[in-house]
Amino acid sequence: MDVTGLRVALFSGNYNYVRDGANQALNRFVGYLLSQGAAVRVYSPTIATPAFEPTGDLVSAPSFAVPGRREYRVPYRMSGAVRRDLKRFRPNLVHVSSPDPLGHRAVSWARSGGLPAVASVHTRFETYPRYYGLAFLEPVIESLLRRFYRRCDAIVAPSESMAQLLREQRMSYDVGIWTRGIDRRIFNPGQRDLAWRRSLGIEDDEAVIGFIGRLVMEKGLDVFSDTIDQLALRHVRHKVMIVGEGPAREWFQNRLPNAIFTGFQKGADLGRAVASMDMLFNPSITETFGNVTLEAMACALPTVAARATGSESLVTEGVTGRLIRPGAIGAFADALAAYCTNPHARADAGAAARAEAERYGWDQVNQALVDTYIRVIRQRSQGALLRSSPVP
Questions:
Q1: E-assigned strands of the chain?
Q2: For 46-58, b where at least 16 C-beta lie within 10 A, e where not — what string?
Q3: Domain spanning 189-357: which CATH class is it, in words?
Q4: Exposed / middle / buried, residue 304 (Cβ in 10 Å: 0-12, 13-18, 19+)
Q5: What is residue 40's three-state secondary structure?
Q6: Class of the 3-181+361-381 domain?
Q7: Domains 3-181+361-381 and 189-357 alike in fold
Q8: From CA 390, how far away is CA 323, in angstroms rounded?
Q9: Which listed residue, of 23, 111, 112, 348, carries a Cα 20 to 30 Å from 276's Cα?
Q10: pTM here?
């Protein structure tokens, strides 16, 4: 079998209604599959005004808004319409990208029909409770995730550090890598724009500390803010640029009144914003890869990041940036201060980061997931059985 024989049913909790790194990677992957001659059908919640147009055919799944975070939706069941569409489509593989109720039903549907199921891991859901005072729930969520992923034939992680964590958590016997690529036409040092920086009140010789992503507490906004306070107390000259939108924007702006908030950026505008920074500060521990880190590296920026899954696979300590113990405010401040005050150190780390980013091309990384698809289909056709939980 080759890629033209694939008929993939992809289930997503958020395919295009809110823009994030995970669903942009999924849309790009669907585009790659279609360009190679595969057939794809996507099942996900939909809204009247999504963040962007979906790639491929999208079938709406029943969903409800998350209480307190109404921008997100939970697909809670596999409706009769979805089941009828699946029957007409006749997939030979099911891909689930979120461990939500629809994802569970999709895996059960695949197993009842003898089809292989592959799951992609995009975020560390088990870490989310700690940002809302519910850290005691982490072991429970990890157990639920283990039950979900063990029912799949294989799972794929976006970085080797995340894959190793999944192995240590005993999530699956078959853990592969589906990393992320970079569009070097958008993200490169040539997009740096000093005139644009000046229009934001940034002097040419001021070091800009950047944050890129959705403005939600689980991105480590509290650690980011506390670290910036430390730099101010030390009288380290710098500017802070925040690129992104989200429900915590008002909190973040109140916390960092002197920061520059550019709002949501995309395409060439995002490339300009990233390249016009001088370093990226990413204190989050929830990412499984860190798309923004790779984008910053391609723009020749050093990264100061939490020593966590994702970042550990991208940032080489002391070479392309710094890896700091999560939550270590003083150490984060030390690393940022060193880059703010030493432009030569910034340039050296940035050059090394750009060289490392050259290894990540979208076609190569997407083909790796295609290869996983074909392998698990072949294993099923040869009678290989899941080594996880009993068939329900």
A1: 7-11, 39-44, 57-60, 63-66, 69-75, 93-96, 117-120, 154-157, 175-177, 208-212, 239-243, 260-263, 279-282, 303-306, 321-324
A2: beeebbeebbbeb
A3: alpha beta
A4: buried
A5: strand
A6: alpha beta
A7: yes
A8: 41
A9: 23
A10: 0.72
Helix crossing, 291-298 with 21-35: angle to 10°? 80
d(CA 127, CA 286): 6
| Angle, in degrees to the nearest 10, between helices 362-381 and 21-35 | 70
User: Residue 242 is which amino acid?
Assistant: I
Q: In what order do the strands lie in the sheet with 260-263?
A: 260-263, 239-243, 208-212, 279-282, 303-306, 321-324
Return the structure tokens found at 370. Answer: 């295609």
Q: Give the domain ranges of the chain.
A: 3-181+361-381, 189-357
Alpha-carbon span 60 to 91, nearest angstrom: 17
Q: What is the pLDDT of residues 171-222, one digit of tens each?
A: 998 999 998 888 889 999 999 999 999 999 999 999 999 999 989 998 999 9
Q: How confident is the model at residue 391, as a pLDDT?
A: 38
CB neighbourhood size of 378 (10 A): 12
Predicted local confidence at residue 245, as pLDDT: 94
pLDDT digit string (tens) for 293-346?
A: 999 999 999 999 999 877 888 899 999 999 999 999 999 999 999 999 999 999
| pLDDT average, residue stretch 210-238 | 96
For residues 166 and 245, the answer to whether their CB atoms sit within 8 Å is no
* Pick from 5-9, 163-167, 235-239, 252-256: least confident: 163-167
Q: What order do you get walking across the sheet with 93-96 strand by strand?
A: 57-60, 39-44, 7-11, 93-96, 117-120, 154-157, 175-177
DSSP single-letter state for residue 278: S
Q: Worst-scoring range by mean pLDDT, 39-53, 166-180, 217-231, 277-291?
A: 277-291
Radius of gyration for the alpha carbons in the chain, expressed in angstroms and rounded: 21
Rounded average pLDDT over 271-291: 89
